[in-house]
Amino acid sequence: MDIIVKKFEPSLNAAAVAIWNEVVEEGMAFPQTETLDHPSGLAFFSEQSFTGVAVDQESGQAVGLYILHPNNVGRCGHICNASYAVKSGLRGQHIGETLVRHCMEAAKDLGFRVLQFNAVVRTNAPALALYRRLGFVQLGIIPGGFRRKDGRYEDIIPHYHVL
């Protein structure tokens, strides 16, 4: 699979909404509980500082995405936050790594100095391994910081990377 990351455009909205909603409905990674529809997805992805969509160049199919935005405002506005989603049947093929690496460059280009993840769920072993491999620093553990779809609570592990 030959993946490129494109800047979000309205023609990618249906695919981006489907990928995003898949992760939300799984209830294992994103804090969101509400899914997006076409209009809310278009607004959501367009309002980010940057939304990148991973596209397989051979098939033209969107296979993942990320959103990038400030983590805070004012004196902490130089710290950004991001979320990543990869189509479930394609996970484990380094699409997430491509997204994170692209995101880090996009964040630098936008003038951010630090990329921070507020809520990496402790049971998300692939994400934790990727962030460790890319040099992210683990900040600690917040016990029970994430409520899974089934109502159980999982620990979250914030991370950061100086850009």
Automatic annotation (TrEMBL):
A Pfam family recorded for this sequence: Acetyltransf_1
The record ties this protein, via Gene3D superfamilies, to:
3.40.630.30
GO MF terms here are: acyltransferase activity, transferring groups other than amino-acyl groups
Membrane-crossing segments per the record: none
**InterPro entries with a match to the protein in the record:** Acyl_CoA_acyltransferase (IPR016181), GNAT_dom (IPR000182), Mito_N-acetyltransferase (IPR052742)
Q: Where do the N-acetyltransferase domain residues begin and end? A: 3-163
Q: What is the official name of this protein in its record?
A: GNAT family N-acetyltransferase
